[in-house]
Amino acid sequence: MALRRKESNESSLPSGASTAPEAVGEAGAADVFKRIHSRPHVALLIILGGIIALVLGIGVSVTFGARDIRFEDVWLAVFQYNSNLTDHQVIQELRLPRVLGCVLVGSSFAVAGAILQGMMRNPLADSGLLGLNSGAGFALAICFAFFPGMSYSSLVLVCFIGAALSALFVFALGSIAKGGLTPVRLVLAGAALSALLTALSEGVALYFRIGQDLAFWYAGGVAGTRWIHLKVMSPWIIVAIAGAIVISRSITLLSLGDDVAKGLGLRSGFTKFMGTVIVIVLAGSAVSAVGAVSFVGLLVPHFARKLVGVDYRWIIPTSAVLGAVLVVLADLAARTVRPGFETPIGALIALIGVPFFLYLANKERREL
């Protein structure tokens, strides 16, 4: 598999170019991007169509629920808010922050998955599968047990730390085996760490009797999202997504292989460091708000690559829009599939994500 990938990476270079650092400069990088398979016009159409679908999804999601509210009342609640009307209170205090939280969380998980898959050239990479989500969740369990009065802004920082430590441990655990770090070993290390941290979180919940507090994060859902959550996490997420777009060109070069990236003058170590920081910020922010919603970062970047090609300058913004649409629609389904009972969105997305993950894992095994 490594040999085939290396040959594939080198075939992406312009004819006559060498992978030696002195052979290819900025001009060579520009030539490489011209030869990379991408569909910018398709990407623009998908982004535009996704934004339209997202606006419509937000409108429908805000309108429908346990209490049906007319669209006219939704419009008035947004632009002419009257605190004396119950419908206006439901829209402003419950449904709007919830659906906007879906947008932020979906974009965060999708962009984090796209960066991980591009940096590591690993189609199985995802913040949930690599243990970042469970690391942030375990940090939450510790905070609920020992620091119950901690503010939400402090919880976000703690989630960052938990996700960062999990990432370091997964990379270290996957690298100690003979043969070094491979995509399959990385996923196996992440799965092992996720299982361990989930078990420890449940143990802490049982011992300190905080199971009710953690149940929301175990299942994954946006029902508890409020304006304070959006106020704290939205600056982190917006800055992180903007940073992901800034380094998207470098991510594309990394996806061609370390040798090719270095030959084109890329500082691979710095790019990987920045990408990892961005992923930790995105995963930590999202988990602190809605819990462990896995598979968004696995599914969405794959579909984005199929649609727009392999240039991450288009994959990342496309993933951000499609991820937001996916989580908004999943939340709408969670509230309407069984009236009177709210299905966790993590469970609904997993119904699609698990078969897709098994398909990818089997494909990787055949290529070994």
UniProtKB/TrEMBL annotation:
UniProt-annotated stretches for the region Disordered: 1-22
GO-annotated biological processes: siderophore-iron import into cell
Segments traversing the membrane: 42-66, 96-116, 128-147, 153-174, 186-208, 236-257, 277-300, 312-333, 345-362
Membrane-topology descriptor: Multi-pass membrane protein
Domain of life: Bacteria
Keywords: Cell membrane, Membrane, Transmembrane, Transmembrane helix, Transport
Keyword Transmembrane helix: yes
GO MF entry, a single one: transmembrane transporter activity
Pfam families: FecCD
Subcellular location: Cell membrane
Keyword Membrane: yes
UniProt similarity note: Belongs to the binding-protein-dependent transport system permease family. FecCD subfamily.
Protein's name according to its UniProt entry: Iron complex transport system permease protein
Phylogenetic classification of the source organism: Bacteria, Bacillati, Bacillota, Bacilli, Bacillales
